[in-house]
Design brief:
The chain is 50% helix and 1% strand. The chain is built from 9 helices and 2 strands, in the order H-H-H-H-H-H-H-H-H-E-E.
């Protein structure tokens, strides 16, 4: 390795320099070499080339390689534990992606594995009088939306079961019927819904499990102080954590399946019919479409009520919906400059037509 590093694979030879105070010689080399060099009168900085030195360096190098090999082997043993668990999780995930119609049966197996531990939790005791079937009934309703009518209610009731196996079979039968009803509710989207539930649950639980394994690996070395093999302790702890992961995975998938609902698509927004209104002003019914030129302004309305030759008011005949409609999208027209008016002299005739001078008529107040 040291030759190839210098020659880059080309034919030739390599030479390297090493101090007796280097970590390699200080930790793994023999202390007799330094004493022998002092007795032989070796000077500081003098190059030492002797078969004894070469053999000592080679032996130290072999011991370093053996130590590094043991470290890599121990690290590989730790990684093998995680790899075995990863294969199980990835096989389950691959089956969820490619299982097709068989995913329905796989999910039912998860439900079957998650319910017995729940039943054992509430039927802990040798006698039926010690069982908490009312709590089990409430738990089934909250987590699985399953109504166990034969179980007593929290307010009271008698226990109709004698053995734990009867309770387990009754709970599994209720779950099977509820599962079939849920599949009928999903319809053609059953495979897609189950696939989404299984994949999302696996991804979330597996990431948390890897985080916990990293913490365990970082702290398991302290078990060596108690005369215990850290690797053996790590394998045992990791196995227990993986079993807890699978139980949590089965329970989470089961709860999500019974709680899942398919929402109906939202209806499209209604179309405006006629002329919509904004406040007290009418708004263009084609608001938001391509703009059209604004209609011509309405002619000025003369004073009084003009009448046509037939006695009809022409402004009353035009409905408000056909008059000019303005929206906030229409740009205001450019302001027109005011027409300049000639100044009226004080002695000029008044523009009002009275015949008087401007200063004696309307110019009096100016």
């Amino acid at each position: 390795l040291r030759g190839r590093a210098g020659r880059q694979g080309d034919p030739g030879a390599s030479q390297f320099f090493l101090s007796l105070e280097d970590d390699l010689m200080r930790l793994f080399g023999s202390d007799r070499i330094a004493g022998i060099m002092d007795r032989l009168g070796a000077q500081e900085g003098e190059v030492i080339t002797h078969p004894w030195i070469t053999n000592s360096i080679s032996g130290a190098q072999k011991r370093v390689e053996l130590q590094n090999f043991d470290s890599r082997k121990r690290l590989l043993d730790y990684d093998d534990v995680m790899n075995q668990q990863r294969e199980v999780i990835y096989d389950l995930r691959t089956f969820a992606l490619e299982g097709g119609g068989e995913l329905v049966g796989e999910v039912w197996e998860m439900i079957e594995r998650s319910l017995p531990p729940l039943v054992e939790e509430y039927t802990d005791g040798p006698h039926a009088e010690e069982w908490d079937l009312a709590g089990l009934r409430q738990r089934l309703m909250l987590d699985y939306f399953v109504s166990a009518d034969r179980f007593p209610t929290p307010d009271g009731g008698s226990n109709a079961f004698d053995t734990r196996d009867e309770v387990r079979e009754y709970v599994l039968e209720l779950a099977r019927e509820a599962y079939h009803r849920k599949l009928d509710q999903f319809g053609d989207a059953a495979d897609a819904v189950l696939r989404f539930i299984v994949l999302s649950t696996i991804d979330e639980k597996w990431k948390d499990h890897l985080y916990d394994l990293d913490h365990l690996k970082a702290s398991i070395g302290f078990r060596g102080w108690g005369q215990k093999d850290p690797l053996v302790e790590y394998k045992a702890e990791a196995y227990d954590m993986f079993e807890a992961l699978m139980r949590d995975l089965y329970g989470s998938v089961s709860r999500f399946v019974f709680r899942a609902q398919i929402a109906a698509p939202e209806p499209p927004p209604p179309l405006f019919m006629g002329t919509p209104m904004r406040g007290d002003e009418p708004v263009d019914a084609h608001y938001g479409e391509e703009e059209t030129p604004a209609p011509a302004p309405e002619p000025a309305k003369p004073a009084g009520k003009p009448r046509s030759s037939l006695g009809i008011n022409p402004y009353a005949a035009v409905p408000p919906s056909q008059r000019q409609l303005r929206t906030n999208r229409e740009a205001e027209g450019a302001a027109k400059p005011a027409a300049a008016q000639a100044a009226v002299g004080r002695n000029d005739p008044c523009p009002c037509g009275s015949g008087k001078k401007y200063k004696n008529c309307h110019g009096r107040n100016g």
